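Please check these two lines:
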Amino acid sequence: MRKGLFIVISGPSGVGKGTICDILMKNKNIDLEYSVSMTTREKRDYEKEGVHYYFTNKMNFKKKIENDEFVEYAIYNNEYYGTLKSEILSKIKNGKNIISEIDVQGAKQIKKDFKNSLLIYLLPPSMDELKNRLIKRGTETQEQIEERLKTAVIENRNTYLYDYIIINDDLVTAVKEIESIIKNKIIDNE
């Protein structure tokens, strides 16, 4: 039996990772399963526990680190994010293709530990556009937006780690490009 593919979508906050993953999950031709990450950040109004993230506190997260329960984890803007082994390993072993939003730190770990991975980095058309998207989202303070923009500049320097870089200027075009990449990788994997 073939092992599943671990697809990582990364990019700065506000670039559209969640929207693109949601659209890809509905495509039955590529049959993806979403890996729900764990975080210590506050839940946004529209988010659902166990659907968008597993929300927890820092003490519980650190305990899971000590118990080696993560495939990868990282600290992003003073909050913890991680991918639980329980969400990934058995699915991949059973041939399921997993998609997950993971930051640059975590993607480095996935690339090292998972031979059967596909790393895709999303870029905004410009930093001004990224700032506009963060403002429109309305979920962060001005200070948090500025911090996310500083982090984006640092993250964007690590695109060399990725198999593909996609500019999310037009959502439909970006999704089609990523679908094509995933389909080709799945075919190569069979």
Notes: The first strand starts at residue 6 and ends at 10.
